[in-house]
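dumping the sequnces here before i forget
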Amino acid sequence: MKTILSVHSLTKKFGHLTAVNNLSFTIEKGNVYGILGPNGSGKSTTLGIVLNVVNKTSGEFKWFDGSKSTHQALKKVGAIIERPNFYPYMSAVQNLRLVCKIKGVSEGKIEEKLQVVGLIERKHSKFRTYSLGMKQRLAIASALLNDPEILILDEPTNGLDPQGIHQIREIIKKIAADGTTILLASHLLDEVEKVCSHVVILRKGEKLYSGRVDGMLASHGFFELKSDDLSVLKSYLEKNASFGEVKIENGMLTAFLKEEMNALELNQTLFSQGIVLSHLVKRKESLEEQFLALTKNSQP
Amino acid sequence: MNRLLQIEFIKLWNNRASKILILSYFILLTSIALVAAIKFDIGPIKFHLAEQGIFNFPYIWHFNTFVTALFKLFLAIVIVSMMSNEYSNKTIKQNLIDGLSKKEFILSKFLTVVVFALVSTIFVFVVSLILGLFYSDYNELSIIFSDLEFLVAFFVKLVGFFSFCLFLGILVKRSAFALGFLVLWMIFEQMLFGLLGWKFVSWETAQNIKGFLPMEAMSNLINEPFSRLKAVQSVAAQMGESFALNYAVHWYEILIVLLWSALFIYLSYAILRKRDF
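..and the predicted 3d for all of it:
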């Protein structure tokens, strides 16, 4: 697998505040990565460092095989950070022409990329007349101009209305389907859950987890059960070694698994014990629950 | 280099305010020719400025470079705002992310400044040449092309001044404040001069020290040309005065301004490199 970006014990201090602390991770070609963390956890600072706009305090990062300088490497990267920044007095086409000049690519792709993000009808309007959603879509078009090896998006749906959020997500999915590597920073879990295959979780500048989204917790999921006599059910499950925590909430019993077990097996066992279920669902924790569990566990 | 200039050109030329200011600046440069039309004809008093010898070669080089240098304030506004707008629109951040290095960013601004200065110099040269050919009393080639060092001084003066503007734009990040700072700095140089001469050293030494400060060094490059005029000198002679000014352009004056320009550009780069966006 080709490595696109490797970050090694990166640290950034703003005075006494450590925004990023000894962070290491690697990004391989072809995956969709999420950087997840609450506000102020160092996501944007990390991206700022690898994008040459924030100076690191210590550590290293390497684009591709590390043979090119950062600004040369960035010509093969497409990135949008926080808010879309363009020249307000210039039209979409003029702005994109400027980006082509900076990246050193031909202007032939401008029309095509504006088509992808659905701005072709407004291509001659000045940037300042655009709505936030349109500005964000122009930013994506601009990031795609050089057919980048990796697309970096920092909170791309922040501040958009539901329609705008939907449009942006559709565009991201389309780009991901084409095989472009994507790095998506967000504090919105469902966003990451919907598009990402891998995730790096940050809290207060420190890495809590990095790896596949579904491997985030060594979790086997849990059962939601209902029966006529919940207390009998509960005492039976508590004696069973396969189950960890068992709790009753609002007339529903939730039992967390300690090892793999399918619903059929459980149903058979319980029935043979004379316990008849009226409700049986096996579920995995949502990313949100996993995330909260993860950040809670490592609280100092 | 071409690429960097094109980048800056797209940014400037699509901005209506910059475009208008740049155009007015070059129209003003040309309009110095209109001075030739100044003519008073009130009964016995006949006065035609063009016939007072201001368009005589080689004096015209001195006169025109001095007068047109006053218009540089127009371009100063353009330059300060082309720098500070990058901050207020946050486009500098986007430029860096898109793959422009910090060095290239500064270089594209500096090259633009040099081009402005160069085009201005060529403009002044052409306009003066045409005016001179019309009105000058002397038309020998050797006279026409003497004292051309005033054009060199003019070019260096503009590069120095614009580099200072560029530096202030980066340092202060807001165009209005940067221009305010520029005025403040001019006052500061005079105050420093006054303070030194009054309390610490002789007035002569204070004058010498002042000559090393950027704004004063730039204005020393081309001394005022008016007292060189025959009419003014004859009036002064009648009143028993004589001017002993040294009008020439000195190499060390050019060197001081060039050093300041280099320092301003280097400091701009140093600031940019240290800053987080």
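The first helix of chain B runs from residue 2 to 13.
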